[in-house]
Design goal:
alpha+beta, Beta-Lactamase, 6-stranded antiparallel sheet
Length: 607
C-alpha cells in the first residue's frame, strides 16, 4: 500500500478525504454507465486503494471512473484460466489511454506469483517504459458462463484475480534484444504480453514437480566428487534462492542426447536452452564430452532471455545422473533465474560457492591474516556473481590478481574470459570513476563488440569507494566465428578511450616542458577549456618554440577562454595552448594576434 505521508488511508483527515474522493468518483461512474453492476464500483475502489491520497486528489473523478469502467469491460467475461489482455494504442478512446496520450495495458487473470514482474519484463523487452502501474488483487464471483457478478477485497485462499492497469510513457521505443517490436507495433506488444502471462501460468503450475526433480538430483550427485557440497547448494536453491522456470532431462545415448521429462517452460521439446543443443542429432563433440564429464554440478547462461520475473538471460543448473556402473547416463537441466539473495549475500554464505571461493583464496598464495589475503577476500566478495558461478577457479584468480594490482596502481584495465563454447565473451573493465559516464560506457562497449565481431548482450556497473568504476560487459558472439583478439591492444584502446582530458594535458605538458613545470601548468590550465575541447580533442607535445613559452607567460587572469575562440588562453593573449583542432567549432572570427597561428589551422582532431 502506498504511503500517503501525513494523510494515511485509514485514519483522520486522510481517510475522510479519501472517502469523499471515492464518493465523487462513484457518482461519476454512475453518470458514465448507469447500467454498470456493483462489480464495477468494486474495481473502482480497488484502483483507488493503489493510489496515495495526493495522487487521487489530483485525478478528475471522471478519469478514475473511466479507468474503472474500461477495466471492468475487460474483466466482465473470462473463462477459467484464461488471461485477458488488452493494449490500447495512443489516441484511443478518452479515459482509456493514459494521461499524456500514452498507450495503456490492461490485464485480468488468476492471481499468481510473478505477474507484475513478468508484465514489466515483456514491456521492457519490447522497448517500452512504464509511467504508472495499478495492480489491485480482488476476490471475485463469476457464474457458470464466466460473467463477473461481484468484485471486492482479496479473499484468503481465493479465488482471487489480478487486475493491472499499466500506462506506457510516450516516446520512441528503445529495443532490448532481438525480436523487439517496431515502435508502432502495439499488436506485437500485446502478443508479447500474452506470451509472458502464458509462460507465467505454465511455470507456476509445474513448480511442485520441478521442485521434486531438484530434490531427486541431490541424491543422484551424492557419489560424485564434491557431491555433498553440490547437494547442499541444490537444497539452498530450493529454499527460494532460485526461480524455477523449467526442467529437462537429457538421456545420453550412443546416437546423441535424448530430451525427456520436460516441465515448465521446457515442456516443449523444441524449446531451446543452448544453441549447441538445438539439433540433438548433431551435437558438437566438445559439448557431448562436456555433458559426459563426472562433475556434480555446473552453472551456465542459456541462450534465451526469459519474460518471467525479469528480462534476463536464464541461468541453467546442470546436474549429472549416474548409471549402475557409475558412469554418467544423463544430465538434468534446471532452467530459471537466481533470486536476488544469490546476488546480495556474501559468497561465503552460499553452499558450494563458499568452497570455491576458499580454494581460489588458497591458491592465490596470500598468507592468512595479511593485507593481500584481506584484499583478495574483499575482491572475491564483490566479484561479479555470475562470474563466480560460471568461471573456473583459474579464471577467477587471474581476474582477481588484476583487481588486486589496481588497488595499488589505479588505472584503466581489462580482464577477459571467453566462453568455452564460443557463445560469448565476458569482459570486466575498470575505468576512472572521475570521468565515468554513459558516453564512456557505451564507447567501451562498442570497442569490445567490434573487436569480437559480436554484440553487446548485457552490462553491469559497480561503483564503490575505489577511484575506479567497474563494468562487466557480456559480448554475444557466434561460435566458431570470433576473431583472435590481441588483449593488450584492446586494453590500450580502452585506456585511450577512458583517459580524461586533464590527464592527457598533464602528460603532454610533462613531455613538452618537464615533469615539474608540466605539473604546474597542468594545475593552472586543465580547467581552462570549454566542454567541446576536452571531449573532442587530445593535447599533443609540441616544439618548445611553438606555444609552450607563451603558455608559461600568459597572464593568470580568467581561466575560461573567450567565446570568440575556444583555444585562447586569455582575453589579452595569443592562442598559446597546445590544443589541436581542425577548425573552430564556434565559426567566429579569431581575435588572437596575427603573430600566432589560429587554432583553426594548426591542429589535428583526435582519432
Amino acid at each position: 500500500m502506498p504511503d500517503d505521508g501525513a494523510l494515511p488511508h485509514g485514519t483522520g483527515q486522510g481517510a475522510g478525504m479519501r472517502g469523499e474522493l471515492l464518493r465523487e468518483a462513484e457518482a461519476a461512474l454512475t453518470r458514465l454507465g448507469p447500467a454498470l453492476p456493483p462489480a464495477a464500483a468494486g474495481i473502482l475502489h480497488a484502483l483507488a486503494e493503489g493510489m496515495p491520497v495526493a495522487e487521487l486528489a489530483g485525478l478528475a473523478p471522471e478519469t478514475l471512473a473511466a479507468e474503472a469502467a474500461s477495466l471492468f469491460s475487460l474483466a466482465e467475461t473470462r473463462k477459467p484460466g484464461e488471461p485477458r489482455i488488452r493494449v490500447t494504442a495512443p489516441g484511443g478512446p478518452s479515459g482509456v489511454t493514459g494521461r499524456g496520450a500514452g498507450a495503456v495495458v490492461e490485464v485480468v487473470m488468476d492471481d499468481m506469483p510473478f505477474l507484475v514482474d513478468s508484465a514489466l519484463a515483456a514491456l521492457t523487452l519490447s522497448g517500452r517504459t512504464v509511467r504508472r502501474l495499478l495492480h489491485p488483487i480482488l476476490g471475485v464471483a463469476r457464474d457458470a458462463a464466466g460473467r463477473l457478478r461481484d468484485a471486492g477485497p482479496a479473499v484468503p485462499g481465493g479465488p482471487n484475480e489480478s487486475m493491472m492497469r499499466i500506462e506506457v510513457a510516450p516516446g520512441a521505443a528503445r529495443r532490448m534484444g532481438p525480436g523487439a517490436p517496431a515502435p508502432a507495433d502495439w499488436p506485437g506488444v500485446e502478443a508479447a504480453l500474452v506470451q509472458a502471462m502464458t509462460e507465467v501460468r505454465v511455470a507456476v503450475s509445474d513448480f511442485a514437480p520441478m521442485l521434486d526433480r531438484l530434490t531427486s538430483a541431490e541424491g543422484e550427485i551424492a557419489a560424485l566428487p564434491d557431491g555433498a557440497e553440490a547437494a547442499a547448494f541444490l537444497r539452498w536453491l530450493g529454499e527460494g534462492n532460485f526461480v524455477l522456470l523449467g526442467h529437462r532431462l537429457l538421456r545420453l545415448t550412443p546416437t546423441g542426447p535424448v530430451a525427456e521429462d520436460g516441465l515448465g517452460l521446457l515442456r516443449d521439446d523444441g524449446a531451446t536452452v543452448f544453441d549447441a543443443l538445438r539439433d540433438m542429432s548433431a551435437v558438437p563433440p566438445a559439448v557431448s564430452e562436456a555433458l559426459a564429464q563426472p562433475i556434480a554440478l555446473t552453472i551456465a547462461k542459456a541462450n534465451v532471455r526469459v519474460r518471467v520475473h525479469r528480462p534476463s538471460y536464464a541461468d541453467v543448473i546442470a546436474t549429472r545422473v549416474l548409471g549402475a556402473d557409475g558412469r554418467v547416463t544423463g544430465v538434468r537441466l534446471f532452467f530459471g533465474l537466481f533470486a536476488a539473495t544469490a546476488y546480495n549475500r556474501s559468497p561465503r554464505g552460499i553452499p558450494w560457492l563458499n568452497s570455491k571461493v576458499a580454494r581460489v583464496l588458497k591458491v592465490s598464495g596470500a598468507a592468512p591474516d595479511t593485507h593481500d589475503a584481506r584484499a583478495f577476500q574483499s575482491i572475491l566478495d564483490t566479484w561479479p556473481r555470475d562470474e563466480l558461478f560460471q568461471a573456473t577457479e583459474e579464471e577467477i584468480l587471474a581476474g582477481a590478481r588484476v583487481a588486486l594490482d589496481l588497488t595499488i596502481r589505479p588505472r584503466p584495465a581489462l580482464a577477459l574470459r571467453p566462453d568455452p563454447f564460443g557463445r560469448f565473451v565476458s569482459a570486466i573493465v575498470w575505468m576512472p570513476r572521475e570521468g565515468f559516464d554513459t558516453r564512456l560506457r557505451e564507447r567501451v562497449g562498442r570497442l569490445l563488440a567490434s573487436a569480437y565481431g559480436g554484440r553487446l548482450s548485457a552490462f553491469y556497473i559497480a561503483l564503490g569507494d575505489s577511484p575506479l568504476a567497474r563494468v562487466h560487459y557480456v559480448i554475444g558472439t557466434t561460435p566458431g566465428a570470433s576473431p583472435e583478439v590481441d588483449a593488450a591492444a584492446l586494453e590500450a584502446a580502452i585506456t585511450r578511450a577512458a583517459r580524461g582530458f586533464p590527464d592527457a594535458l598533464a602528460d603532454a605538458l610533462a613531455e613538452g616542458v618537464g615533469e615539474a613545470e608540466g605539473a604546474r601548468l597542468a594545475a593552472r590550465w586543465a580547467d581552462a577549456f570549454p566542454l567541446p575541447t576536452p571531449t573532442r580533442y587530445r593535447p599533443e607535445p609540441r616544439s618548445p618554440t611553438c606555444g609552450w613559452p607563451r603558455l608559461r607567460s600568459a597572464p593568470a587572469g580568467p581561466r575560461r577562454p573567450s567565446r570568440a575562440c575556444p583555444a585562447r588562453a586569455h582575453a589579452g593573449s595569443s592562442c598559446a595552448l597546445p590544443i589541436r583542432a581542425r577548425r573552430c567549432r564556434w565559426r567566429m572570427p579569431c581575435r588572437c594576434s596575427k603573430a600566432s597561428t589560429s587554432a583553426r589551422s594548426r591542429s589535428s582532431p583526435i582519432a
